[in-house]
Amino acid sequence: MNSVVNALQSQAAMVQADGLRFGYPGLLLADAASHVWPAGLCLIQGDEATGKSSWLKTLAGQLKPQAGALSYRFAADGRLPAHELYWQDPRQILSEAQSRVLVADWVAQQQLLYPHWSAPEMARHVQGFGLEVHWHKPLLALSSGSLRKLWLAAGWASGAALTLLDEPLAALDLASERYVLQALAQMADSLKDAARPRSVIVAHWDAMQGIDWDDVLALAPR
Questions:
Q1: How far is it, in rounded angstroms, from Cα 119 to Cα 215?
Q2: Which residues does 130 contact at the CB level (< 8 Å), separation at least 6?
Q3: What is residue 102's predicted lDDT score, i.e. its pLDDT?
Q4: C-alpha pair distances (Å), 127 with each of 46, 74, 123, 180, 190
Q5: What average pLDDT score do residues 151-172 get?
Q6: Calpha distance 32→46 (Å, rounded)
Q7: Quick one: 96 exposed, middle or buried, by C-beta within 10 A (0-12, 13-18, 19+)?
Q8: What would the pLDDT profile of 45-78 be if each residue is shown by its tens digit?
Q9: Which end of the chain is more exposed for a tag (fewer CB within 10 A), N or C?
């Protein structure tokens, strides 16, 4: 894995990985890996089984590294505050209780979790994705594509300093894919607001046409 960290990135670092080693039994995905993620749109790019989703899980604290350290600009005591992280694993199967929650109620719960939540942003993305028709349905009634749209909309609206998105174009129709690209491009400048910087880190298999990434971590084929 090649990772280039320059002085400018170091000054504006939102997340920094130093010498990380992580993986699963019999499958080492990173060894002595270091990288710096700045505020803005960041891409973790790699083919299938290169570990891009596992990078997100590690950054989210879901997958514990075997060695190395992670540091966060917005973690005063070294711990990642829950309200500064948005991570919804799109492959995670919902529990029975979660699956029965209405979309409207789930969104209301997210709004309570994130103090920098933007209701206007959420409304815009709900409209952009056409999620209004699902508003009073339980989560179990949504297709995998509609669930991904909901996770994306909430992530963008959360205001979380670290927002992690896994393969945002997967399972989407063409119109929704276009909306994802449009929404990412439109939010790029606002993420670098000095008063409230955010790092939106996307794991995807390609560079997603039309996106001007502030940082790219390219994972080597395995």
A1: 28
A2: none
A3: 98
A4: 31, 31, 6, 13, 20
A5: 97
A6: 18
A7: exposed
A8: 999 999 999 999 999 999 999 999 999 998 877 6
A9: C
